[in-house]
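re: ur question from earlier - yeah i can do the single chain one, its not a big deal. heres the input i used so u can compare w yours
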Amino acid sequence: MTNMKQRLRNLFRRNKMRTRATTVPNKKEAPEPAQQEPNKKSGKQDASKQEPPKEEESEQPAKDVDVEIIPTPPAEGEMLTYFHVGALAKDCLINGFKIGAWQMQCTTRTDSDFYLSTFGEGYPTMRNVFGGVEVFKEVGNYSTSLGWFTSNDLVSEIGVRGMSFGSRLYGLLKSTIGTKDEVTFQTKLKCGLERDPVKVELVVPLCNEPLCLGYVMLAPLENWVLGYRTEYNCDQKGFDKHALCLGFNNGRTEVGLKLENFENLRGSIFQRIGEAWAFAIKANLYSSENVKQFAIGLQYDFQNGTLVKAKLREDSRLGFVYQSKIGTNIDVGYHVAFDGADPIGGAHRIGVSWGFHC
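and the output i got, formated as tokens:
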């Protein structure tokens, strides 16, 4: 059920970001109101002093899903993907801090092994509510799902995986039918091949999808990975991104470096201290636009399903997260954030999350 929870969370995040990408012309200049709130105080704000949006909140969704999406841990024997580099640091510094005013998730497994899931989240204004429902079924090496979202999108996925000549092969066909303003149809195919120490994955546009994506991962040494990722825009007939990554993870220590377009260098460190404590650091080490961003986080695991986290950003924004369980099937999370430079008069943010798994 743990992988199903993460899979559902990522499914709705991807489609929420896709919806935001189609409604916001320039994502870096116009983050959604609820995410803009923590960086401003009440009253008017000088536009010239407005700080750039944070990396984990404002990267272009259609291109930089690795910033938002925290991948599920690889199955035993599987290699890490490009998006696993720095994943422990992202989980420490992002997961739980993104809760809006409310968030609710429910997953039920039927006697015939169908997973029925619903998800919803929102902010105080109804126009920011987003959610949907999904049916998921897995039979052997095959899987299929059908989801509906409040953005009036129908999303279907058909997946297959298997082994051939000592290599692991997999494919996922995803189709989206949009009905909000007019009927639209989009289809893309994600396929991959893995044979230790090499992993290759491609996302091929089939219909009305502009981007062709892909990455290659190499594991030259135990606990080490090297990777290259690229994005090709079929509409503009040019490359949007070239990225290199280097990662180390032995279960207790994680180090990640990503260089994008030879202009932006990002790094992260995650370190466990004993069985309960851990800390994480994530920063822009170099930016061609001279944007300084970093976050430092600390977490304590009570080893009983309860986790407490704290995070400090470069703009003195402080955030705290409390995650726990009620029984075995209910997860709860609470989030509070405020301006560390002005705790009383600065902007405040609270969030509540409930997850039901039956």
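Confidence is low (pLDDT under 50) at residues 23-67. not sure if urs matches, ping me
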